[in-house]
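Worked Example 4.2. Consider the chain below.
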Amino acid sequence: MQNILITGGSGLIGNSITKLLVHKGKEVAWLSRNPDKQEQKSFYWDPEKDILDQESLYWADGIIHLAGAGVADKRWTDSRKKEILDSRVKSSLLLFQELQKIKDKPKAFISSSAVGYYGIDTGEKLVFEGDPPGKDFLASVVKEWETATEKIQDLKIRTVLLRIGIVLSKDGGALPEILKPPVAAPLGDGKQYMSWIHIEDLSRMFVHALENPGLSGIYNAVGPVPVTNRGLTKKAAHFKGKPFIGVGVPGFALKIILGEMAEMVIGGNRVSSEKMEGTGFRYLYSDLNQALKQIFK
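Applying the procedure from the previous section yields the following structure tokens:
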């Protein structure tokens, strides 16, 4: 597969995957609402208006689908919740609808999903791909998103869904947020699990899924060693050279600041990476110390 089309290419994960694919000698193009403004080769689409330049699908040997409004970017008002759901479901259905129309289809479709599928707080239980979905807002979003994406399989295109955990990177994601206050502190009691993955390993996982014809279906995209919120915050503060206090930010204070979204940071998931490791994927950063050392070097 030489030509790879990416949706959500300008985001944190999309940028990282683009660099990796280009480094491997692949041609990369993005689907974008503003193709003229991108430095990366781009084709036009607008899922809100049901528009997609079909030329992009003829061009692509494989598709990586990352598009979706940021879950933690804004407070969860009703309109924001609708945007979070629609941006994922509509974009997946648009791709399905347009792929139906073309004869020479791409060989593989690799889509992001999220560990939020299992529910906002699954406690200490280790969760696997076959476990049932949660009943909260995020779980229902992921369920609908996966249902829309899985339609691609009906077109005889090999489809992989990667349920992404907490992405560690200095350029975005959870780490800059955790370390934003002058003093780092756990959230709530700090005992909730965070199933983290280094951005490089996540990008390599998408490319692994793209290049290995044996992979299809759902895989957890997390590192092999989940840690508690307290453990992660303490170590991140250490590597960043920031003071850490062991007293957690109380749940009620988080609810005042974040509204309903607070449930997401007070809860957590301990997610298994066993299925992905069984495909021969090897981590560069399986150890949190190693990952943070690289990020803050």
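The two ends are 34 Å apart (CA to CA). The CA atoms of residues 108 and 145 lie 18 Å apart. Compare this with Example 4.1 before moving on.
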